[in-house]
């Protein structure tokens, strides 16, 4: 089969010809339909993060946002022909309590692989294998968009952590503020706008009109906030302070900015991973006081687990297909890999398609 | 009756003679036994924080850590002779949902008074009145230490918020790290050491031996960490990283330091309120990454509510009296007010006693 592999020396991304994997006992064989590309994939391809090859290999098959069809259930609980999307993490030690509990998203660094990211081959290949416990059903009507389940699941985990944290009292949030209008930010905004949790949504960017991200924000019903015109510090004065902030850019100062943008009792979650050290002059007196006096919370969120994937798949089934479609700005075959990994202001979600019928 | 009042012009603390309050319908009259003094009281006395006088008054009766005995239940559900401790906050608007829910600790700034701190007379007087919903029973055996319920309730709220937040997964914390060896820090350490939540406790200070705070830390079973020898950044290397940090100093950089001291999935709560702006050069890249990659949480915690007072009163009944006694370094009458408010390395908890029999 063909697969997209990162060779860390270089680094170089190449289409390789490799053996179609054969499922072990307890694993199914999945025929890949499509794989989404996100910011992490581009950073992996550039050698900035991740990219650790599996032991004994000289390359890593990349891709972690995938949708596929069960080609061979191989005696598992799955059904041939079922549409599925795979989770990302796998345990180093199958017996660890995080593996047994299905909470690998909370496992400490070093105790897991991330398929397509580090230590274990990913999904940008014609076929992959997986245990059924790491697969989630995708409704057939959304087979062409199933790669959105993984990024949406990050927001679902953030909401899970946020609402669980605030269940210690009668929290009544009204507004959600997404930092960043990249593909995760826009997907999150669409999920938050169509969900029941918040009455109003905002999305932070730094683009001039006309711009397709601003159009998307306004089409789904959100309010665009231009960070060049309204600083995060001024946001609470210009608009209302936000009950919930979902940070997607990884811009290092945003963890602090997010606290300032919050209303009393608000929660900010950060998901992006900055590129490295980055020092800023921070008024820690103000940060500390605001956290305390207004009972604010700042949560780091990484990865997600099965219930978050399931919630994401459920949302995918409900959201109008047109919303999902307007986020996909390019579907490429393996012959278009370079374009697929290129990024521009016009790029929202690029997808590598393995099945011309569905895509 | 006699009371201790702050006159903001000055500012000056004076013993005044004032009318004994008479309870309105639905209120009880409480005879004060003793009132603890904490760092906030000293800052109020110095005119640094709070101190807003009730409307129409020229002074504020201070004191918010009190224990008293019901002198006149006045037809309420209370019993004459019952030992009680009062909550701090009262609503500006009785009908607000935070008041109705008993969650004034989560009410936004400006919607509540704090008795003895801002806008409403406190408890450092021979008598005070209160509605029973703002009073919590103290076991008679602990009448002499009932003023510890309020500060302990802050830790109980922190634990409530922390364990609620982490109930989103199977969290198994082992170690707790208290920042600060002032009276709240030591009280918190004693509570954490005698509680079931954590197997190991640490307490951060900057004192040389021999020192009574270090003695206290070691007597209750904690490990003293000298911040001059082990920076918070090095703490995780020297000891194990902490699953829970309880910050009590209000040192502005500690909100950031606390995140670095945490183990994966750990929670830090900050309670202290810094004196104002204080800028530091912060590696936001590292802060942001650590939050995300290790699923860490930073929570601001202010004030507390009735269930937290009840949990604190329950702990007070269980902890050996000797532990509480060794925290009280001075009991003063109104003639010793100046000494009571003085602070020194030998001062742990100073108390103004109104009842010579109990105290």
Automatic annotation (TrEMBL), chains A, B:
Which cofactor is essential here? Zn(2+)
Q: Which reaction does it catalyse?
A: D-glucose + NADP(+) = D-glucono-1,5-lactone + NADPH + H(+); D-glucose + NAD(+) = D-glucono-1,5-lactone + NADH + H(+)
Q: Which residues form the Alcohol dehydrogenase-like N-terminal domain?
A: 25-140
| UniProt record, GO biological process | non-phosphorylated glucose catabolic process
* UniProt: NADP(+) binding residues: 181-184, 206-207, 301-303
**Would the keyword Metal-binding turn up in this protein's UniProt record?**
yes
Quote the record's binding site residues for substrate.
40, 114, 150, 303
This entry's Gene Ontology molecular function terms read: D-glucose binding; glucose 1-dehydrogenase (NAD+) activity; glucose 1-dehydrogenase (NADP+) activity; NAD+ binding; NADP+ binding; zinc ion binding
EC numbers: 1.1.1.47
Q: Which Pfam families match?
A: ADH_N, Glu_dehyd_C
Domain Glucose dehydrogenase C-terminal per the UniProt entry, residue ranges: 143-354
Q: Which domain of life is it from?
A: Archaea
CDD domains per record: glucose_DH
Keyword annotations of the record: Carbohydrate metabolism, Metal-binding, NAD, NADP, Nucleotide-binding, Oxidoreductase, Zinc
The family classification in the record reads: Belongs to the zinc-containing alcohol dehydrogenase family. Glucose 1-dehydrogenase subfamily.
Q: Which PANTHER family match?
A: GLUCOSE 1-DEHYDROGENASE, ZINC-TYPE ALCOHOL DEHYDROGENASE-LIKE PROTEIN C1198.01-RELATED
The function of this protein is: Catalyzes the NAD(P)(+)-dependent oxidation of D-glucose to D-gluconate via gluconolactone. Can utilize both NAD(+) and NADP(+) as electron acceptor. Is involved in the degradation of glucose through a modified Entner-Doudoroff pathway.
Query: What's this protein's name?
Result: Glucose 1-dehydrogenase
| Organism this protein belongs to | Natrinema ejinorense
List the taxonomic lineage: Archaea, Methanobacteriati, Methanobacteriota, Stenosarchaea group, Halobacteria
């Amino acid at each position: 089969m063909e697969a997209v592999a990162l060779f860390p020396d270089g680094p170089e991304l190449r289409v390789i010809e490799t053996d179609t994997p054969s499922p072990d006992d307890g694993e199914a064989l999945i025929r890949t339909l499509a794989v989404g590309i996100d910011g992490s994939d581009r950073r992996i391809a550039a050698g900035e993060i991740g990219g650790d090859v599996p032991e004994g290999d000289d390359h890593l098959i990349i891709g972690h946002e995938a949708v596929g069809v069960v080609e061979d259930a191989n005696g598992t609980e799955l059904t041939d022909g079922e549409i599925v999307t795979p989770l990302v993490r796998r345990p180093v030690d199958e017996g660890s309590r995080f593996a047994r509990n299905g909470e690998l998203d909370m496992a400490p660094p070093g105790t897991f692989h991330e398929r397509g990211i580090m230590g274990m081959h990913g999904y940008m290949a014609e076929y992959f294998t997986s245990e059924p416990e790491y697969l989630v059903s995708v409704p057939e009507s959304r087979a062409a968009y199933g790669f959105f389940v993984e990024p949406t699941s990050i927001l679902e985990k953030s909401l899970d952590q946020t609402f669980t944290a605030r269940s210690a009292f009668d929290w009544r949030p009204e507004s959600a503020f997404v930092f960043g209008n990249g593909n995760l930010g826009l997907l999150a905004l669409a999920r938050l706008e169509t969900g029941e949790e918040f009455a109003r949504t905002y999305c932070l960017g730094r683009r001039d009109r006309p711009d397709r991200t601003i159009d998307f924000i306004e089409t789904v019903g959100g309010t665009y906030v231009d960070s060049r015109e309204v600083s995060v510090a001024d946001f609470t004065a210009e608009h209302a302070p936000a009950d919930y902030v979902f940070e997607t850019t990884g811009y290092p100062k945003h963890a602090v900015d997010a606290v300032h943008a919050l209303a009393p009792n608000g929660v900010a979650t950060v998901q992006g991973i900055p590129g490295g050290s980055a020092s800023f002059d921070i008024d820690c007196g103000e940060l500390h006081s605001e956290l305390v006096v207004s009972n604010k919370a700042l949560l780091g969120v990484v990865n997600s687990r099965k219930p978050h994937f399931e919630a994401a798949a459920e949302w995918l089934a409900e959201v109008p297909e047109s919303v999902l479609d307007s986020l996909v700005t390019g579907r490429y075959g393996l012959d278009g890999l370079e374009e697929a990994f290129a990024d521009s202001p016009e790029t929202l979600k690029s997808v590598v398609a393995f099945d011309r019928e569905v895509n």
